[in-house]
Amino acid sequence: MEFEEILNEYKNYLFKMIYSYIQNREDSEDILQEVFLKLYVNLSKIKEPEKLKYYLIKLCRSKIYDFLRKKKRLSLLHQKVQQVQSSKSSDSGEVLEKLNILPKKLRDVLILKDIQNLSYKEISKVLNMKVGTVQTYVFKARNILRRLLK
Length: 150
Hints:
By secondary structure, this protein is an all-alpha fold. Helices cover 77% and strands 0% of the residues. It is built from eight helices and no strands. α1 (3-22) packs across α3 (52-70), α4 runs antiparallel to α5 and α7 crosses α8 (131-149). The chain starts with a helix and ends with a helix.
């Protein structure tokens, strides 16, 4: 697959994933650009093209966490609370606020499952977990989120 094809196929998907963590369009676009720059540099080194999607998701997660560490941002929860307060809260804002209360592992699994629509098997590959563990985390995350939204 050529770089341009990969870019066209994955840019919207990856942007949504990044944005679900960062909640800022410009920063999300910058991170996406870093991801594709790294892909461009390393494209010839990818030995298993069928695993490209998983490689890109891992790369995105890495860049997201690097970004959050570098900027020494407020915790995601604190950001969400400020956004919700300033926008007079909406249902989706409340869900995002509560989502960020979840422990990181549960939040990551739930975002990949319910926002990115990955299968349990795909999530297990991305996060290097057993499928059963992914299913358990999704179940726990959904239950906690339901309780928080009541």
